Amino acid sequence: MVRDVSTEQKIKEAAKRVFQKKGFGLTRTRDIAKEAGINLALLNYYYRSKENLFEIVMQESIEEMFSYLEHIMNNKQTTLTEKIDAGVLRYIEGMSKNSNLPLFLFSELQANPQHLFDRVKIPEGFIQDTYMFKQINAQINKEKLNFTAIHFFINLVSMSIFPIIGQPFIKYVTKMDEKSFADFIEQRKTLVPIWLKSMLKLV
Amino acid sequence: MVRDVSTEQKIKEAAKRVFQKKGFGLTRTRDIAKEAGINLALLNYYYRSKENLFEIVMQESIEEMFSYLEHIMNNKQTTLTEKIDAGVLRYIEGMSKNSNLPLFLFSELQANPQHLFDRVKIPEGFIQDTYMFKQINAQINKEKLNFTAIHFFINLVSMSIFPIIGQPFIKYVTKMDEKSFADFIEQRKTLVPIWLKSMLKLV
DNA sequence: GTCTATAGACTGATAGAC
DNA sequence: GTCTATCAGTCTATAGAC
Question: Number of Cβ pairs closer than 8 Å across A and B?
Fold first, then answer.
């Protein structure tokens, strides 16, 4: 009795889409089954419970979020300037493609921060150990700037992610349509790195 | 038979707390009744349905979010520099006090952006009509900067709000404790305005 | 206005046929 | 492995007593 990998996978991917879109509370296991094109009973056959399936989706979502950073931040071959360019671009494009991910994570983690500690393998405080952090600190010391590397890092992530998270709100107050908003995001791919480099006096 | 205003108010405030913390999907009307110290039937007596109560909470939450901006942005007596200082401070302090509000709004609006149009009185595109926007545009023209006022405004809000929204995530990856994080936010009250003024070459 | 009790619908999970 | 049918529990909403 070998488990059908493709069905198991199909259910998990459907679950990821539905959970990320609606959140745990509004998601119905029937919706996931329908989205996966299978029967409700099969979901429990493979994953035992809604909660267990959610935990798995949560873990993979957190790892996906980190994956946008890890490789760029620990590359010893690139300059800080190159890392800023690549990091902003990767974040904006990644979040645009999967715009439900960040809000899903932040919401569910606000309700239950324990998820971060339960299953995820990323070590606490891992940011400070990255190569990029050393580069930022070197630049801060060289220019005698009055803020820490964490502030800079948060600025990078804020300015890249926030416009995606606040999309409906921003569209409303600025009266941008779909096309204008896409242009707006496109512009930020070059603008955000410029502002960030200026903060570090890299230009 | 005059409606008991204090009970009606008590229920609405309890609903606001519970909805903002758990979201619509995870909120149980029993939780709201318990939080308000009344019986479940009384909730329906005053507000007819969970959905109707939610709509009211949603409307007031959106208006609360805007209230942080309106007065500052339309003040004709203050300079742009003063508006940046006041705006950042007000946003950071407001969101810290009520840290569930922004995530609640963004999540629910992602699920159903229609809420913005349904009941809220704030006009679409209202940002562009504020006095602060005219001041930003004047400065952009004067210094011949290559971005729009909307980008600047989004940067202000991003850097102020995002650290609150991403709090659990940030605490984890940086290994900050409660005290360190509070200091971190405190520092941003002065740092964020400095970065923003630098973007507009106001210093 | 406020309560208790309960109707009626929905949801997660399982039993059992194939 | 996959399905249909159904159970047991939970949830919103209301009926009816006071």
Answer: 146
Q: Which residue has the tokens 């480099």?
A: A197
Per-residue flag: A1 CB under 7 A of strand D: yes
Q: What is the pLDDT of residues A17-76, one digit of tens each?
A: 999 999 999 999 999 999 999 999 999 999 999 999 999 999 999 999 989 888 899 999
Tens digits of residue pLDDT in B77-120: 999 999 999 999 999 999 999 999 999 999 999 888 898 888 88
Q: Where on strand D do bases come within 7 A of a protein Cβ?
A: 1-5, 10-16
pLDDT at residue A4 above 70? no
**Domains with residue ranges and CATH for chain B:** 1-48 (1.10.10.60), 56-199 (1.10.357)
Nearest residue to A80 via CA among A137, A4, A36: A137
Q: Are B47 and B84 within 8 A, CB to CB?
A: no
Which of B108, B169, B178, B180 would best serve as a mutation to test chain A binding (most A beta carbons within 10 A)?
B169
Chain A residues closer than 8 Å to B96 by CB: none
**Distance CA B110 to C1' C12 in A:** 26
pLDDT, residue B203, reads: 85
Q: Which pLDDT band holds residue B59 (cuts at 50, 70, 90)?
A: very high
Cβ burial B142-171 (10 Å sphere, 16+ → b, else e): eeebebbbbbbbbbbbbbbbbbbbbbbbbb
The span from the CA of A150 to the CA of A136, in Å, is 9
CA angle (B73 as vertex; A179, B143 as ends), nearest 5: 70
Please provide the DSSP assignment of B153-184 as one string. Answer: HHHHHHHHHHHHHTHHHHHHHHT--HHHHHHH
Q: Distance between CA atoms of A22 and A15, rounded to whole angstroms?
A: 10
**Average pLDDT rounded to a whole number, residues B29-53:** 98
By C-alpha distance, the chain A residue nearest B102 is: A166
Query: CA of B34 vs C1' of D15, distance in Å?
Result: 22
Residue B1 has pLDDT above 60, yes or no: no
The C1' atom of D8 and the CA atom of A66 lie apart, in whole Å, by 41
CA dihedral (A183, B67, B46, B29) positive or negative: positive
C-alpha span between B33 and A154 (Å, rounded): 39
A15-29, A181-195, B119-133: which has the minimum mean pLDDT?
A: B119-133
CB contact under 8 A, A23 and B25: yes
Query: Distance between CA atoms of A33 and B163, rounded to whole angstroms?
Result: 36
